[in-house]
Amino acid sequence: MSPSRSEPGRGRSAPAIPTPGTAQATLLNIVGDIVHPSRVPVATSVFLAAMAELGHTEPAIRQAIARCAAAGWISKERVGRSTRWALTARGIRLVEDGVAGVEQLSDPHTDWDGRWRILVVTIPNEQRSIRDRVYRALRWDGFGNPLGSVWVSPHLNRQRRTTAAITGAGLLNSTLSFVGTADDLGLSVGEIVDRAWNLDDLESIYNTLIERFERMAPTTDAAHFEALLRLDEELQNLLVIDPHLPRALSGAWTGRQSAERLLHLRSIWHGPAERHWAQLLIEHS
């Protein structure tokens, strides 16, 4: 009998991807979208002031900082009596992946070659507590779930979060992964798409976001800062729920054009938001 494959990290899952809208996600949006690529450490007091403007309480902000540090995304240094925080190499990869993903939401993706990555993931009952974490990673990487434990994605090389989640959860021995094309046996490509993703619901979400954010009319730097980070929350959520299907699979679906409109708002709000951040640094460092 051949030995089973070792499963590193069993029982020690990789850090969870922060849920958009939480204090932890907001902190990462600030350091990723406003602070980065500057490597200048930011004082705790600045984060407290900035995130309070967005409705987060001081205990929630301090907990978010502690969790991001525990995940290895930020590290601290002491400057006199002040504690300052900067992105680690691991944190930089995380936020750069997020920013790149957001900026690609409007890409029509016209170069798909017809191949799918197929995963069959079985989560034992005794590990059902990690199911949501694994499924979230799969969706973040663009996978859909057309049948039972079967997950499919047209993105062959977009699986870093999925790999980390499956490995960290100790599921290597209950996962199959392979690449191939659909044939005439079983579901058609159109049926796979219809079962794996609800593009009508996703289009409604995009339309609601367009209506909400295009009605905003921020007039101050502080209002632009808040509007940008509220938009960032929604864009991060779209990274999870929008599979970014190739045009060959999505046809006349209008999501890509809607994403382009949201990214245009992000672009024009960015400058005033950065000015407000600079003022916060002056007032609270």
TrEMBL record:
Gene Ontology biological process terms, A to Z: DNA-templated transcription
Start and end residues of each stretch annotated as Disordered: 1-20
Gene3D superfamilies recorded: 3.30.70.2650, Winged helix-like DNA-binding domain superfamily/Winged helix DNA-binding domain
Domain Transcriptional repressor PaaX-like C-terminal: 197-278
Entry-linked InterPro entries: PaaX-like_central (IPR048846), PaaX-like_N (IPR012906), PaaX_C (IPR013225), PaaX_trns_reg (IPR011965), WH-like_DNA-bd_sf (IPR036388), WH_DNA-bd_sf (IPR036390)
UniProt domain Transcriptional repressor PaaX-like central Cas2-like: residue ranges: 110-178
Pfam families attached to this UniProt entry: PaaX (PF07848), PaaX_C (PF08223), PaaX_M (PF20803)
Superkingdom field: Bacteria
Domain (Transcriptional repressor PaaX-like N-terminal): residue spans on this chain: 23-91
Name of the protein in question: Putative PaaX family transcriptional regulator
Native source species: Gordonia aichiensis NBRC 108223
Lineage: Bacteria, Bacillati, Actinomycetota, Actinomycetes, Mycobacteriales
